[in-house]
Amino acid sequence: MKTRRIFAILSFSLLAACAQMSPHEAVQNTNIRRAAQNARTPSDHDALSNYFENAAKEMQTKADEQKKLLEHYEEKGYLYGRQAQDLKSHTAALLHKYEANVDENIRAAATHRQMALEQAKREYAIREGQIVNAESRAHSSK
């Protein structure tokens, strides 16, 4: 009975982890891609950076779950009979996918953080340049 319960819980978690992207997630992905293409201000890039950092944290959580599940399959593979090897390889593939997504999201966050910094520097330089130009015009008109 206890073995069946554990198997049911693990099967359900595996099923949930393997589920395809929901329509909401697909729309959200499209919206993020569009937002990244249209980002013009430092705050736009900061918001995108925060989004990608949060996505990396979520993927890391999923990767950690898959690591635990893989360890369980390796330790208790005898509970799953012939399916044990399939479960191990499938879980390892998901783990690899999630870890790759973590790296990708961290890189995207860093890129947008850098873009925000560069954009802020440019805007600051433009503002300072306008102030300097206004001051030089004021002095030259006297």
Account of the 3D structure:
The chain has one domain (2-14, 22-140). Residues 19-24 have low confidence and may be disordered. Helix 3 (42-75) packs antiparallel against helix 4 (83-140). The chain is mostly helical and 142 residues long. It has four helices and no strands.
Record field, number of beta strands: 0
Order of helices and strands: HHHH
In round numbers, the mean pLDDT is: 81
Shape: rod-shaped
Please estimate the helix content: over 70%
| Number of helical segments with 4 or more residues | 4
Strand content: under 5%
SS content category? mainly alpha
Our Rg estimate from Cα atoms comes to 25 Å
Keywords: Signal
Protein name: DUF4398 domain-containing protein
Signal peptide: 1-19
Organism: Nitrosospira multiformis
Q: Which keywords apply here?
A:
mainly alpha; 142 residues
Brief write-up:
By secondary structure, the protein is mainly alpha-helical.
Please describe the topology of this protein.
Blueprint: H1 2-18, H2 23-38, H3 42-75, H4 83-140
Helix pairs in contact: 3-4
